[in-house]
Amino acid sequence: xxxxxxxxxxxxxxxxxxxxxxxxxxxxxxxxxxxxxxxxxxxxxxxxxxxxxxxxxxxxxxxxxxxxxxxxxxxxxxxxxxxxxxxxxxxxxxxxxxxxxxxxxxxxxxxxxxxxxxxxxxxxxxxxxxxxxxxxxxxxxxxxxxxxxxxxxxxxxxxxxxxxxxxxxxxxxxxxxxxxxxxxxxxxxxxxxxxxxxxxxxxxxxxxxxxxxxxxxxxxxxxxxxxxxxxxxxxxxxxxxxxxxxxxxxxxxxxxxxxxxxxxxxxxxxxxxxxxxxxxxxxxxxxxxxxxxxxxxxxxxxxxxxxxxxxxxxxxxxxxxxxxxxxxxxxxxxxxxxxxxxxxxxxxxxxxxxxxxxxxxxxxxxxxxxxxxxxxxxxxxxxxxxxxxxxxxxxxxxxxxxxxxxxxxxxxxxxxxxxxxxxxxxxxxxxxxxxxxxxxxxxxxxxxxxxxxxxxx
Length: 457
Hints:
Elements: E1 2-6, E2 13-18, H1 22-39, H2 44-60, H3 62-73, H4 77-101, E3 105-107, E4 113-120, E5 123-127, H5 135-147, E6 150-154, H6 160-172, E7 180-183, H7 187-194, E8 201-205, H8 208-220, E9 224-228, E10 233-237, H9 243-255, E11 265-271, H10 275-286, H11 307-323, E12 326-329, E13 344-349, H12 354-357, E14 364-370, H13 373-381, E15 388-392, H14 399-403, E16 410-413, E17 432-433, H15 438-442, E18 446-453
Parallel strand pairs: 5-6, 5-8, 6-7, 8-9, 10-11, 10-15, 11-14, 13-14, 15-16
Antiparallel strand pairs: 1-2, 3-4, 4-18, 9-17, 12-13
Helix pairs in contact: 2-4, 2-5, 3-4, 3-6, 4-5, 9-10
């Protein structure tokens, strides 16, 4: 079986990638297990040197890798370059801090010595998406390789070139053979792989549907799993918010990566006192985003990554229209080659409409009206998802009691919601479980070994 990489801006086939055979997968798994035996015992300072070397390669190859990313999934080139820079940042962060994060945690308890030791587990399988084809991989790989695990990547089929480039970076950085491998597999073969005894854990970034399947398979095999799934993030605008800053940032959040981000704001919940004012400002900012060739340095809105994604988005927009949402502009594919979609704004959206029930993955913004701050938070929580949330207000004294009520893995006040290396990232409810990044992320796929030592014997 082969998979195609198709340029979403031109619809040209870039390359075809053949899948790995069962025999090849078996060899790769054995190599990963064998590598783990030695790699897990290598001093952490040496593992840090290899990871810093990866960071150096990312920096020197930023343009080449950015162009590859843009060609395969349509991200505007400036955003692709920024993604490569962020990958270097996560490599440097864990190279600098992993040793401290993994120090045994001492437990004070009289004369008996007690501590928690963090031991690596072995080969970890990462099932990664196409929307941030480098960042999603490196935020998994950097901490896990520093922890002493080995890594296996099953990437999205439309970014096969990115997967190969990432594997090549690990070889060039000097990592021992078997420490990092990319696998080209069908979904069925991947599910089977999760149950293999040589795999010690699995992490998925993807859809809710994929998360349920991966969690079920990992559960059958009694293996640790981390899931970072979809989001229908609220952006709450209170009456005292800086409306122009909120509107500009809201537009950026919704249009970033052509709206194809799990952590992006998708539901804009505005209290009645400033609803009309915010809506006008928001519309002005959204209209500044024009679909364009993603290779252009001034492009801020590229194509959707695949034709089926654009088709689904269009169906969702048509459903919103039928349900009675008010369309200000957009809701149409762009004529011509490429999977472009017009920036779209709906208002007067209610909690019963599709925008409240489903994640909308594309350059489409839905604005809801709330009576007051309490009603705004009620609307924000009326979703099965709980990944991130944004809150805009000048009353910082009131923030703690508000954020306590928001059901999300992260809340950003007066700024864009994003994943950052210094803070744990993950969701609640149907947005998944487990955490990536920060000290919490590096410890996810480790054995927290409790040790109690009593004198004598």
